[in-house]
């Protein structure tokens, strides 16, 4: 329904890259905190930039003079893609103005032959339909001089290239007559390095590519996996996990957002833990304890407490809890001092990093309550009884204060929905349209943290009322979180416009799952895939435009790539298949499997496999295989440690469960109206055969 995303914008509405296209950040990180060396491959194939926008670069020109930037005519550029659908190897196809065609493949890897990170390009040129000779130009910046089949600077190699080129100043140039096919290779180190004798560049390229593929397959294999009947969903899953392994703790890379961002980076850590990457989760959380205070310190403290509690819940690492307890205990002490001196609310602090208003912020306060409640359980289990008791007392006091403040501040609207302000005990009024004002947009971005905290009881009247307010006042478009997108359109755009901001869809996905909003989760999953990330390469920015920007025909993103937007898709996908429920007090109670599965996944021939997905009850693995009249379900034993275990088969329209057999015997604990099968109390591996109409 919307034009695909392609343009990348920076602050001041300027293009992030020379061509305006987004880039892929490629690397091979050796540490859980992400890559130190990164290569930015512009998606239209026009340029590779070392480390950061404005750094060393290699530009690709084609056409009769080599001056036509590769990919510059979008109509003649095929949709960029990843090798095998998900690997961090960029594939592009282009046709120049005179009819020559090109296939380019590029990636970044480490090799034994060349120190550091190296970007490789293979460019296949086909001039059989070209009207004139073609010139291929690889332009290096800053300049270097020729030494054999290299460009060097101060005895260090800046570029390697296939024999047969001429040098034009600091450009490597190949002249290709009509009627020919040829492939040329170049290798662009992230920094000039001393290099000895090398094998032929084509051979080195193939070796480095095999190594890169093997590296990423091994890294992905160390985590959990979900396989569903739609290959594009699985490709997005793998590609986004790779991106976040590359980014590590960074909100983005290569641009002004290359930073640790609160609370967004804690969200990323949690999601990576939920996908089985425990070392990444722990490393980001440990790093967060060393970051300087923000202008909203309590929200930051609360996010760290929540993240630490979930990491323990997933992996039961007592040594990690012991290492971080002194810092977290300091946060609890600070929170305690504020509550002792105040009115059962934490003191005012900045609304957010972009809104400097000093407020009693509901998201900040509820996240602190959530963190205190969760860490009370963790410290109770790990031998820190005094800290656990202190957390419980502070959480109870804060909860009382919040209940009172929300009761004073909330407003039931004529349409039956419930408005609860972010700014408690203040003058914040309901927004008729959330995206019309800056504060309305930020309400829509920040409020999900309060909704996901568990403060509003799942399925309760307040949760239902707030959900109705979101639905009726412009919170969503195509399942995406709406916002003003002022960083893309400008603050005074006429007419008023809006964009999407799926960074904050992550907490909203948790709220939707808690309230059993399966259809909304499915819509969000597909909305993200179709409209919040680039087709074929799965890159997202912090925000995206909905209408094309003025003077363009394309939609744009703000400072891509973005690790938190990636985490939103990964969390949404996880929640369609595995959702943890609590006992009403925040303690883990059980698991819901398949509660928001898209119905088409259970068409005959569909197979769903979940492997080693961490939960509070241990790693969960299960499979669902659909045939014409039966569905076979296998659930591994680890999931059966949950107190409550339910499976829902969201069958295609008009299909219903007729009968269930467990171990060859009739099993009656199912609801044909909802497709829900109650597996609570069963032990050992579970095998079900389900007959459907």
Estimate the global geometry from the Cα principal axes.
globular
Helix content: 25-40%
Structural class: alpha+beta
Determine the number of helices (DSSP H or I, runs of at least 4 residues). Answer: 14
Q: Biggest sheet, in brief?
A: 8 strands, antiparallel
Cα(first) to Cα(last) distance is 34 Å
Task: Write up what this structure looks like.
It is a single chain. With 693 residues, this protein is α+β, with helices and mostly antiparallel strands. Strands 2, 3, 4, 5, 6, 11, 15 and 16 form an eight-stranded antiparallel beta sheet that branches. An eight-stranded antiparallel beta sheet has the order 7-8-9-10-17-14-13-12, covered by helices on one side. It has a seven-stranded antiparallel beta sheet with strand order 18-30-31-32-38-34-35. A hairpin with a 5-residue loop joins strand 5 (57-62) and strand 6. The longest helix has 25 residues, at 385-409. The protein is globular. The two termini are 34 Å apart. The model has no long low-confidence stretch (mean pLDDT 95).
């Amino acid at each position: 329904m919307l034009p695909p995303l392609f343009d990348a914008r920076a602050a001041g509405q300027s293009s992030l890259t020379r061509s305006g296209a987004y880039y892929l950040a490629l690397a091979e990180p050796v540490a859980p905190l992400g890559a130190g060396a990164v290569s930015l491959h512009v998606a239209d194939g026009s340029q590779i930039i070392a480390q950061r926008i404005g750094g060393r670069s290699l530009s690709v020109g084609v056409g009769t003079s080599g001056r036509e930037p590769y990919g510059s005519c979008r109509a003649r550029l095929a949709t960029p893609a990843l090798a095998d659908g998900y690997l961090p190897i960029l594939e592009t196809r282009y046709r120049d103005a005179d009819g020559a065609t090109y296939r380019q493949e590029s990636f970044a890897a480490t090799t034994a032959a060349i120190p550091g990170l190296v970007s490789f390009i293979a460019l296949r040129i086909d001039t059989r339909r070209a009207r004139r000779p073609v010139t291929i130009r690889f332009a290096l910046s800053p300049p270097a001089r020729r030494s054999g089949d290299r460009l060097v600077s101060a005895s260090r190699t800046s570029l390697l290239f296939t024999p047969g080129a001429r040098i034009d100043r600091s450009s490597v140039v190949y002249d290709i007559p009509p009627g020919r096919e040829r492939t040329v290779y170049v290798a662009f180190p992230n920094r000039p390095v001393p290099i000895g004798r090398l094998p032929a560049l084509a051979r080195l390229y193939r070796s480095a590519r095999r190594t890169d593929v093997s590296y990423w397959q091994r890294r992905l294999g160390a985590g959990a996996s979900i396989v569903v009947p739609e290959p594009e969903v699985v490709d997005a899953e793998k590609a986004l996990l790779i991106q976040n392994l590359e980014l590590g703790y960074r909100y983005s890379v290569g641009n002004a957002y290359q930073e640790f961002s609160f609370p967004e980076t804690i969200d990323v850590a949690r999601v990576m833990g939920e996908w089985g990457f425990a070392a990444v989760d722990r490393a980001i959380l440990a790093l967060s304890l060393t970051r300087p205070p923000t202008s909203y310190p309590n929200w930051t403290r609360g996010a760290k407490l929540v993240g630490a509690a979930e990491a323990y819940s997933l992996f039961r690492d007592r040594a990690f809890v012991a290492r971080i307890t002194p810092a977290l205990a300091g946060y609890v002490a600070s929170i305690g001092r504020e509550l002792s001196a105040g009115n059962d609310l934490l003191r005012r602090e900045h609304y957010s990093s972009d809104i400097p208003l000093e407020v009693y912020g509901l998201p900040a306060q509820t996240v602190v309550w959530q963190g205190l409640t969760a860490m009370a359980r963790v410290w109770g289990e790990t031998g820190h009884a005094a800290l656990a008791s202190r957390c419980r007392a502070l959480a109870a006091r804060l909860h009382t204060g919040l209940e009172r403040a929300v009761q004073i501040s909330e407003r039931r609207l004529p349409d039956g929905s419930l408005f609860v302000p972010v700014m408690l005990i203040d003058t914040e009024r309901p927004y008729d349209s959330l995206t019309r004002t800056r504060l309305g947009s930020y309400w829509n971005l920040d409020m999900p943290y309060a909704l996901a905290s568990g403060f509003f009881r799942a399925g309760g009247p307040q949760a239902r009322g707030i959900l109705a307010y979101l639905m009726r006042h412009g919170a969503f478009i195509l399942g995406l979180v709406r916002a003003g997108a002022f960083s893309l359109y400008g603050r005074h755009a006429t007419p008023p416009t809006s964009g999407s901001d799926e960074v904050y869809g992550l907490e909203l996905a948790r709220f939707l799952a808690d309230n059993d909003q399966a259809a909304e989760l499915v819509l969000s999953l597909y909305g993200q895939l179709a409209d919040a990330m680039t087709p074929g390469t799965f890159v997202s920015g912090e925000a995206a435009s909905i209408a094309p920007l003025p003077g363009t025909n394309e939609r744009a993103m703000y400072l891509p790539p973005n690790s938190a937007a990636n985490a939103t898709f990964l969390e949404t996908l996880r929640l369609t298949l595995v959702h943890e429920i609590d006992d009403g007090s925040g303690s883990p109670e059980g698991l819901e499997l398949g509660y928001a599965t898209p119905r088409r996944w259970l068409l005959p021939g569909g197979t769903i496999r979940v492997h080693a997905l961490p939960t509070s009850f241990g790693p969960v693995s299960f499979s669902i295989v659909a045939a014409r009249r039966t569905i076979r379900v296998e659930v591994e034993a680890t999931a059966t440690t949950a107190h409550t275990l339910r499976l829902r088969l969201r069958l295609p329209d008009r299909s219903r469960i007729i009968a269930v057999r467990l171990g060859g015997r009739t099993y009656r604990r199912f609801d044909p109206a909802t497709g829900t099968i109650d597996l609570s109390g069963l032990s050992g591996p579970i095998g079900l055969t389900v007959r459907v109409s």
